[in-house]
Design a protein that fits this description.
Serine Threonine Protein Phosphatase 5, Tetratricopeptide repeat, 2 domains, 6 strands, globular
């Protein structure tokens, strides 16, 4: 129920449900609520969710990262910096983003920030012509627009998808595994790529399978 209310943007009702529940909330409940706060841009409830999540799991780097995501989406860079300082004091480190793709029975690994293949820049231009606009809110750094676009282009799932387009025969689905939740910008990009390249793309992240086909995703844009 908390998930359903959060999806619908009824965050206050979700909080009331948690508070009135006779059962002790599982950390995943607060994680779900915290993730929805980025979508609906609610810092007050995000702080509530993060505090309770950290009370239950003090070693959760994901709680800090998700809270920083909420602040970044609202350009509250001082708060982003404050959250990062709290992470450092707790000796917690954000898990680096990795993606894997199997091509001809060989697994290829990509890490966020790896060198961009020239073909990815060409693919980005095709995406722009198809209406793709980078979601700069997903770039968690207080830098200029150009730098943010470059940071987003280096996300591991984009690198893996681009490699699949280069190495797999036309029409063969691209299957990527990701060790973190796919960000909103990469999700939007994968939808766009599936349409302009006429290619099915399956991404397995930490929440679910995303099946991109003809510009749509099986998750219906909520994950």
């Amino acid at each position: 129920m908390v998930d359903l209310l959060s999806r619908a943007g009824k965050l206050d009702e979700a909080v009331d449900l948690i508070k009135k529940s006779p059962f002790k909330p599982h950390p995943a409940i607060y994680g779900t609520l915290l993730g929805a706060c980025r979508i609906h841009k609610n810092t007050k409830i995000a702080e509530f969710a993060a505090k309770n999540l950290l009370d239950l799991d003090p070693g959760s780097a994901a709680a800090y990262v998700q809270l920083a995501n909420v602040y970044a989406a609202m350009n509250k860079w001082k708060d982003v910096a404050r959250v990062r300082q709290l992470m450092n004091r707790s000796n917690l480190v954000k898990t680096p983003g990795y993606s894997w793709i199997d091509v001809k029975n060989k697994v290829h690994e990509f890490r966020s920030g790896d060198r961009i293949h020239p073909d990815l820049n060409e693919l980005e231009e095709k995406m722009k012509l198809a209406g793709y606009v980078p979601d700069l809110e997903c770039a968690l750094h207080d830098v200029g627009e150009t730098e943010k676009k470059q940071l987003l282009l280096r996300h591991s799932e984009k690198l893996a998808i681009a490699y699949g387009l280069m190495k797999l025969p036309p029409g063969v689905p691209i299957r990527v595994f990701k060790n973190l939740r796919i960000c909103a910008d990469c999700h939007r990009a994968a939808k766009c790529i599936s349409e302009i390249e006429k290619r099915e793309i399956i991404v397995r992240d930490t929440t679910r399978f995303h099946h991109f086909k003809d510009g749509s995703c099986s998750c219906r844009d909520y994950w």
